[in-house]
C-alpha cells in the first residue's frame, strides 16, 4: 500500500503536507517514509514524524528494479502498513526537459503508485482545474488520483476550487489547507534546517499532523493507498556483499555530520561491518574501529566547536597517519582540510576550506575512478550528487581519485582527494549507484 505525494512545482508545501500526513497516519498505523531525490534534510523530518528512518528513491541512482527492491526493503525493515513517498520539485521535473530520469514521475512509474497532486491554489479557482488537467494529460500513465489544495484563502475559496477541479479535471480533491505563516519552517543555504538540530521541531510536526487531520480526508487517502495494487515485477540488487571479515566502521553521527543515505549504512552492515556511531563534535577521541566514514552536514556552522575539540582532531589525524581507511563526503571533506573559514580542522589535507555566497556545485554527478582507492577500482564508473557553497583552496598537484564526467568536483573536473588510505570528495554517493562501495570499504578496513 503506497502513495506518492507530488507537487506542481517547488515551494508548494510538499514537505509540510507530506510530513503532516505521515504524522497523522502514524498515530494509528506503521508508516515507512520515502523521499524522491538526493535529499538528506526532508527525510530527517519524515523520520521524526514516523519513528522510521526515511529512505531515498532516485532514478538517476537506481534502476527500476533497484527502486522496487529499495521500496520493499523499507517496508519490510519497518514492518510498515503504508509506504508514503514525498516527491521532489514538480511531478515531472528531472535532469532532462523531456525525459523522466531524476523525476518524481519516474518513481511513481517504477512502483506503479497512485499520485496525490499538491497544488498552491492561491488566487486560483477555475485555473486550478487547468493545472490539474495539464498534469493528467502530459503523461496518462501517471495515476493522479487525488488533489490537495494548499494556500486556500477560506472555506468558500476551497469549495469553489474543489468544484472546479472535480467537475472539469475529473479528479477528487481530498483536502485544502488554509494559509498560515505560523507553520513555515526556518530555511538555510542547503534547504530546510535538518531536524536533528531542532529540539522544538516535534512541536511543529505535531501541529502539521493536526492540520492534516482537520483538513484532509484521511479515509479517502487510505482508500487510494489500499487500492494501489501489486508492485510491478522485476527486482535488482542494490549493493554487493563480498566482505567476509568482521570489521568495525566508525560513522560520524551528530549535530554536525548527519547526511547519510540509510542504505549506505545498511550495506556496510551487510558486508560484516559493525557500525559504531561517534561524534567529532562531542567525543574526545575515535572509538576502537577499523575504518571511519564522515558524511556531509554543516561543519562550517559548528567550526568553532570542532576546532575546540582538539583531541578528536588529533585522534582522526593519527588514525589517518597509521594508514587506516577514512572516507569523507562534502562536509566531511572540509573537516579533513587544514581549516574551515580560518578555524583549525584535522589537517589531513594541507588546504583550507572557505564558504562562499554563491553555490559552487549543484548537480547530479558521474565519476570515474582514476586509480584504485578504498571504495572503487581504477576504471569504475559511479554516480552521485554534489551540493555545496564551499571551496577547497587547493594548490600544487593534489592526488585525485576521481575524474568527474558530469558535474564539477573540487577543480578541473577532478575530485576525491587522496592521502594514504583516505579519500575525501564533494560527491555524495548512494550505494545503489556505487554497488561496490561497502564491500570495497569494509575489505579495506579488514586489511589494516
TrEMBL record:
EC number(s): the record gives: 6.3.5.11, 6.3.5.12
Record site feature (Increases nucleophilicity of active site Cys), residues: 428
Q: What keywords would UniProt list here?
A: ATP-binding, Cobalamin biosynthesis, Glutamine amidotransferase, Ligase, Magnesium, Methanogenesis, Nucleotide-binding
What cofactor does this protein call for?
Answer: Mg(2+)
Q: Is-annotated flag, keyword ATP-binding?
A: yes
Q: Which residues form the signal peptide?
A: none
Q: What are the CobQ/CobB/MinD/ParA nucleotide binding domain coordinates in residue numbering?
A: 3-190
Which InterPro entries would you find in this protein's record?
CbiA/CobB_synth, Class_I_gatase-like, CobQ/CobB/MinD/ParA_Nub-bd_dom, GATase_3, P-loop_NTPase
Enzyme class label: ligase
Reactions catalysed according to its record: cob(II)yrinate + 2 L-glutamine + 2 ATP + 2 H2O = cob(II)yrinate a,c diamide + 2 L-glutamate + 2 ADP + 2 phosphate + 2 H(+); Ni-sirohydrochlorin + 2 L-glutamine + 2 ATP + 2 H2O = Ni-sirohydrochlorin a,c-diamide + 2 L-glutamate + 2 ADP + 2 phosphate + 2 H(+)
Which intervals hold domain CobB/CobQ-like glutamine amidotransferase? 248-432
The protein's annotated pathway: Cofactor biosynthesis; adenosylcobalamin biosynthesis; cob(II)yrinate a,c-diamide from sirohydrochlorin (anaerobic route): step 10/10
Q: What does this protein do?
A: Catalyzes the ATP-dependent amidation of the two carboxylate groups at positions a and c of cobyrinate, using either L-glutamine or ammonia as the nitrogen source. Involved in the biosynthesis of the unique nickel-containing tetrapyrrole coenzyme F430, the prosthetic group of methyl-coenzyme M reductase (MCR), which plays a key role in methanogenesis and anaerobic methane oxidation. Catalyzes the ATP-dependent amidation of the two carboxylate groups at positions a and c of Ni-sirohydrochlorin, using L-glutamine or ammonia as the nitrogen source.
User: Would you identify the family this protein belongs to, as annotated?
Assistant: Belongs to the CobB/CbiA family.
The record, for NCBIfam families, names: cobB, F430_CfbB, PRK01077.1
Supply the name of the protein. Answer: Cobyrinate a,c-diamide synthase
The species this protein was found in: Methanobacterium veterum
